[in-house]
Amino acid sequence: MLKYSKQREAIKNYLLVHRTHPTAETVYTALKDEFPNISLGTVYRNLSLLADIGEIQKLHIDNGADRFDGNLSPHYHAICKTCGKVDDIPLENTDFINQLAGIHYDGTVQEHRIYFYGQCSECSKNNF
Known about the structure:
The chain is built from five helices and five strands, in the order αααββββαβα. It is an alpha+beta fold. The strands form two sheets. A three-stranded mixed β-sheet has the order 4-3-5, with no helix packed on it. It has a two-stranded antiparallel ribbon with strand order 1-2.
């Protein structure tokens, strides 16, 4: 059984409220006023622990810092190639992808993650 931690609970709650897919550094900066003794290492360890036990998602972004997501409902992510912003894409009925991949995989496909890359609306509007 995992011992309760106010800091861990605050980190998880931050992710549930802020749907911006923050980095560990962003979470640390947001919580350091409330928890003056919190360290960046503590934030990293707790984010990794929460991801390992399935309470949050850890997003491995190419050429960038890992991002974290408190939204556990099935969804995909779009990453802006210009500014790095990560947005949710709530596609429905995607279980067929596991079945399709399973046809070509000598094993059992249990889940998948897909990232879409492009340009966010703000960058598109500013013609970057």
